[in-house]
Design goal:
The protein is an all-alpha fold. It contains five helices and no strands. α1 runs antiparallel to α3. The radius of gyration is 17 Å and the shape is elongated. The protein starts with a helix and ends in a 9-residue tail after the last helix.
Length: 167
């Protein structure tokens, strides 16, 4: 694997750890408003992002490349509403998709077939992530000020959990 691709994968691993940090900040925002179901949603998102980071970590190590951890930037800790938090999460996921596209382009240019195959899983995952956030944003917009529907959605998210996919 060429050095530029290895470096880009390492940067993506660190971005995945940062993404977990972003979602934990969103969870803390929701917890601060006693919205424990929404907080749980974002905690599960953080777990998924850490899983993604560790998947890249393992891939790098399997390829004989040392993973290097970097300092994480401070995430946004304040939001105008739960809807705003989800809108920012959606933007974050779209930016992450672009990052994986760029990684995939780099791997294709290098004819690095093992990495191309590895990145396909992440690209498929990003389609799911963007669809999930888009769906929740649409629900939040539809329920607007209906406190019963908002409470029901909060309750629904309280039961969300993360199970790593089988390898």
């Amino acid at each position: 694997m060429k050095e530029a691709l290895a470096k880009a994968l390492n940067e993506q691993m660190n971005f995945e750890f940062y993404s977990a940090h972003v979602y934990l900040a969103m969870a803390a925002y929701c917890s601060g408003d006693s919205l424990d179901g929404f907080a749980n949603f974002f905690i599960v998102q953080a777990e998924e992002e850490r899983f993604h980071a560790m998947k890249i970590y393992k891939f790098l190590n399997d390829r004989g490349i040392r993973a290097t951890l970097e300092a994480l930037p401070e995430p946004n800790n304040d939001y105008d509403s739960v809807l705003h938090a989800f809108e920012e999460g959606y933007k974050h996921e779209m930016a992450n998709t672009e990052r994986f596209y760029a990684l995939s382009d780099l791997a294709m240019n290098d004819r690095e077939h093992a990495t191309i195959n590895f990145l396909k899983w992440f690209i498929d995952e990003q389609v799911e992530e963007e669809a999930l956030f888009d769906s929740i944003i649409n629900k939040l917009k539809r329920i607007d000020k209906d406190s019963n529907a908002f409470y029901m959605l909060d309750t629904e998210f309280a039961g969300r959990s993360f199970s790593p996919p089988a390898e």
